[in-house]
Amino acid sequence: MRKFCLCCFLILLPLLLIPSAAFPNHLFLSRYRQTLLNLESGMGANNAVDICQTEDGYIWIASYSGLLRYDGTSFTRFSDGTNGYTAQSARRLFIDRSGRLWIGTNDNGLFVMEGSRFRRMTDSAHGAFNSVRAIAQDQKGDIYVGTSGGIAVVVNGGLERVALGGHDSESILDIACGAGGCVWAATRGGDILILRGGRLKKVITPNELGGYKARCLFYRSPGRMLAGLSSGNILSIRDEDDLTDAKFIATPKFENVNSLYEDAEGRLWVCSDSGIAFFDKNMRFNRVSGALLSDSVENIFQDYEGQFWLGSSRHGLLYLSKKIFMDVGFALLMPRSVVNAVLPVDEKLYIGTDDGLFIADPNYKLEENLLTAALRGKRVRNIMRDSNGNIWISTNSELGLVCLKKSGGTVRLGKYAGMPSENVRLTVELKNGDIAAGTNGGAAIIRGGNVVRSYGAKEGLANRMVLSICEDARNNIYLGTDGGGIFVIENDVIKRNITKGNGLDSNVILRMLYDDENGGVWVSTGNRIYFLTKEGWVHSINTPVPISSGVYDIKYCTHGKIMLISDSGIHITDRAELLSGGATKWKSFVRRDGLSGSVTPNSWNNFDSRGRFYLCCTEGLYSINPDAVRISNAPPKVAVNKITVDGKAYENPKTLRLPSSAKRLTIDLAVLSYANPDYDVGEYMLKGFDENSSTAGRQELRNVSYTNLPGGKYTFVFTAKNADGLECDKPVKVAISKQKTLSEEPLAILYLLLLGLFLFFLLMQRFSRGRWRALRRRYDELHGATAQAFTAIAGAVDAKDRYARGHSSRVAEYAAALGRALGLSEEALDKLYYAALLHDVGKMGIPDSILNKPGKLTPEEYNVMKSHAERGGIILRDVTLIDEIKSGAAFHHERYDGKGYGRGLKGEEIPYVARIICVADALDAMATKHAYRDAQDLPHIISEIESNAGSQFDPAIAAVAARLLKSGELTLFSDSYSGEPSPGAV
């Protein structure tokens, strides 16, 4: 043992032999959006002691407050026996090679999730394994569990103790399994236990670790076991436990390593009480600075899309989502200031702010020199590099225009040198090599470092505040001003002034850009974009409203694209399409993509040589490569969180059977994509009910509802696309069946009964006259049976609607009386009577809750009620030998003027039988007492029939009805009538 200690001392002491460099690293977090989830943000806890992700895409969090599941929008807590989980806390999470989730608890042992249910492992040690600290799986597939009472292995659904000799009841902090068949464990006392073949083979004590305790273990290929120590350092041991090859890896200024983790890019992460850090592929140590979690970090996890999740035992859960924009100011540790201009020069960045000039090197480190010192606190508005390599810096200060010469040294140009003002806004290099400068007092032309010409009020520049400058192919110079429009210099003289009178909406010209291909000038007035042709015509360019609001800059992109920079971000489209005035497709990158503030008005933004675009904002500098934007290469995962039926919830259902009484179905959907959730789009459809699929954003997917589904079988299908347009590989499908109601089940029997009765009736008519007398009695019997059957069906319909007792029979009698007065034959009267008798058969398919509602129907309920006419036509559609029956049911609510419902038929397009039934139906409706009004008197009824002739009713039929009522030939049933049938009724 002493030999081993001496060997370790000689090998482990020189920590600097392992390459590591400790320096704060803001660069990593500059590409991520930080979201802290805790008690205040809805997580329900301020601690996250372990994190993992199951194959279905859910994020799981072990918390002292219970087991939590996160879907990107809301948390589901498991702590009260839900689905079999009977523990008040969770301490450790583990996903085995079969994809099962294992949960170690503080108070109730070990659970495994199988499907949507949890199962507890029995404890053969009678409670010794209640507090689980670690879980691992060896090469054979066995699950080892580290607890406060020793090490256990899962056997036949229970926990059995692993014999450790004198270490049997040792409290275990962590367990890891290596490729060599060994199981490693770190104890609370700081020892490392090494097991092989289920037996304890070796113990490494803190004394052999330089006096430090082992706190966590992590197996890292190829063949190295890493142990995090209380000192903050890491011990690397060959997996075959050959300790002569052990090495220390230094983690400067870190204490108490809690966990180690290797991400998909090969970075080795270190989580500790001092914060987080990582070793890159070259084993350089990078301490991550600027994180919202700066201490007590327990673990880190990378999800299937490459986003990071960090858990803290004190502060909650930190989610790092990859941003489209990189926060360059954060990476550089620049003060949060308004950035006005940026210029990439070779590998450096020149950044102009309201607080001075900043220069960044390729490693995102700020440089300090005499120039930055001289400009500290000065407002830098524009930075431009000319073709000779000189850098021109426009300031709003006593320094005026500063030129940083390529050869070294600086030149300052102020009013003393002929500049119109020392408040310089911009410079532009002209084609002849001159420099044009715009100031608050006019414009100047600089040649060879001297002002050779200036333009002010005397030279015709009525508005002297110059905001933008450009030059066309004919060497004409355009000066855009703050309120005076555009002044055009031709042959050194101002010749034209383009203003609102020429078609602009404003005389404020924020930006101009010459178009070589089309020979014109793009112009932004702030709220609108124009194209100024070489002939001088002003054309307004159509852009979407969000883009047109405050366009501060215009840039050309690759592949014929043009970029408009507005207050909300950048918007890219095809230049030719935009100029043509036709429909254009836009690609936008805005605040939700990672900008923390608005774009700086009238700022000067630029591309570098690698296609990265730098954007000036009111709270810093951001960058993006618009041609290479991609957050995730992984298709999103989707889930049906739960389906609630009339208040009863079903978690993650695969199938669902509903009773016939079910009214409301509410579906909670989740897109389990965490890369850029604002762009996720879900698509769903209830096949068998929906005609088309519906799309919705993340929040709208939480409450998809269906009410009063008819009985039958359905399939709910849910899919989604993420921010990168990738569609999920496996849409979720839920088979849903609903038991049919009594009013739905008998329909098929009714169809057969009606068809059979009418076939018998018509067959009897076809028998020869020679047998007529012999069959007459039989015919009368069948006719009576038919009448009884139809009357029974009509009675069943009326019985379903408590407000329509006897309605079908009365309408049939009124219709027969009208038909006789209209001269119909006896056969036609017979058919008319039965058609009227069954005109409301479609009400069999209307839910009782709507049919018998005492109050006013909602618009949705009224639409369902109106469907009874169409339903009636469908029910009777197979009765093809007597079309009048089907027509009466389907079209009795059509109006003569075409404003009825059903198909919106008009005039004589409506079957004659349906027009008669329409009048008869109205007569009974007016003559009958309802819940919302009393029966109408006869004069009022006659008046209504006459006034609606030609609109609601066929005028000829209405005239006959009015005549019969006036003469008393037709007596209406009502609460005040005797109930005897009217004269002549069939």
Automatic annotation (TrEMBL):
Pfam families: HD_5, Reg_prop, Y_Y_Y. This is Uncharacterized protein. NCBIfam families: HDIG. The keyword Transit peptide does not apply. Residues 1-24 form the signal peptide. PANTHER family: CYCLIC DI-GMP PHOSPHODIESTERASE TM_0186-RELATED, LIPOPROTEIN. Keywords: Membrane, Signal, Transmembrane, Transmembrane helix. Residues 804-926 form the HD domain. The chain crosses the membrane at residues 748-768. Residues 782-977 form the HD-GYP domain. PROSITE patterns: HD, HD_GYP. It comes from Synergistes jonesii.
